[in-house]
Amino acid sequence: MSRAGTPDFFYREAQRLGYVARSAFKLIQIQKQYKLITSGSSVLDLGCSPGAWLQVACQSLGPLKNGGAVVGIDIKKVKVPSMHCDVRVQTVCADVMNLERDQVIELSPQKKGFSVILSDMCPLVTGITSRDAALSSELGMRALDLAVGRAVLPAHSENNVPVAADSDSSTCGVLRPGGHLIVKLLESEYIKEFREICNPLFRKASWLRPKATRSCSREIYLICQGLQ
């Protein structure tokens, strides 16, 4: 729905095409531009509610015979959507901030990690811009921590923003070498530092604001390609 409460183009298209939310078109655009999810990919979707990215990720795997897997994790219980998903999609109800690396690895195919990690996690906004930005950065850094491992990350940011949960003592991440990471953040002074952390870890890190993002939103996505 638009800010005025009337259906917008992406909302109507989502309903027409069977997606559970308009956010599906954000990942669709990312896929068209970067083609991160391919046949046989193993995908981890952090903050998967309500399931639109699960749908697009599964579609991107291609026919069932091509293999691949999609695992969604959310603090809410998420039912796998009936449309655009198949047996390759599963969901887990858990708090990402409290999950240990080994628990996540157990969810991956052959326990070998994931080739693509999606983080569409967003904090419960308080309306206080600086606070919301800090919370968003914390979630983003947790996704990065799970992906690449704590050993390569700073203990805390220069702005004293907490960057990772204390529960994961592992130094290894769950993203396979050459894998890709997508992280949603809220635009703020923190995002420059976030990209600076990612730059040496990945072959390329670039910003994207999908067309389906609402005009009033501060959401922006960091597309990290090719884990070094």
**In terms of structural class, how would the helical and strand content be classed?**
alpha/beta
Number of domains: 1
Model regions low in confidence, pLDDT < 50 over at least 5 residues: 164-170
- The averaged pLDDT comes out at 91
* DSSP helix fraction: 25-40%
Distance between the termini: 40 Å
Rg to the nearest angstrom? 17 Å
Principal-axis shape: globular
Query: Which oligomeric state applies?
Result: single chain
Cross-sheet strand order for the largest sheet: 3-2-1-4-5-7-6
Q: Tell me the CATH topology.
A: Rossmann fold
User: For the record, what is the CATH homologous superfamily label?
Assistant: Vaccinia Virus protein VP39
Order of helices and strands: HHEHEEHEHEHEE
- Supply the number of helical segments: 6
Note the main sheet.
7 strands, mixed
Architecture in CATH?
Answer: 3-Layer(aba) Sandwich
Keywords: Methyltransferase, rRNA processing, S-adenosyl-L-methionine, Transferase
GO molecular function: rRNA (uridine-2'-O-)-methyltransferase activity
Domain Ribosomal RNA methyltransferase FtsJ: 19-226
InterPro entries: RNA_methyltr_RlmE (IPR050082), RNA_MeTrfase_FtsJ_dom (IPR002877), rRNA-MeTfrase_E (IPR015507), SAM-dependent_MTases_sf (IPR029063)
Structure description:
Helix 2 runs parallel beside helix 3 (52-60). This protein starts with 8 loop residues before the first helix and ends with a strand. It has 6 helices and 7 strands. Strands 3-2-1-4-5-7-6 form a 7-stranded mixed beta sheet, with helices on both faces. It is of the alpha/beta class and 228 residues long. 28% of the residues lie in helices and 22% in strands. It has a single domain, classed as Vaccinia Virus protein VP39 (Rossmann fold, 3-Layer(aba) Sandwich), CATH 3.40.50. Helix 5 (129-148) links the parallel strand 4 and strand 5. It has helices at residues 9-17, 24-34, 52-60, 101-105, 129-148, 190-198, and strands at residues 42-46, 69-74, 89-93, 114-119, 175-186, 202-208, 219-227. The radius of gyration is 17 Å and the shape is globular. GO terms for molecular function: rRNA (uridine-2'-O-)-methyltransferase activity. Belongs to the class I-like SAM-binding methyltransferase superfamily. RNA methyltransferase RlmE family. Keywords: Methyltransferase, rRNA processing, S-adenosyl-L-methionine, Transferase. InterPro entries: RNA_methyltr_RlmE, RNA_MeTrfase_FtsJ_dom, rRNA-MeTfrase_E, SAM-dependent_MTases_sf. It comes from Fraxinus pennsylvanica.
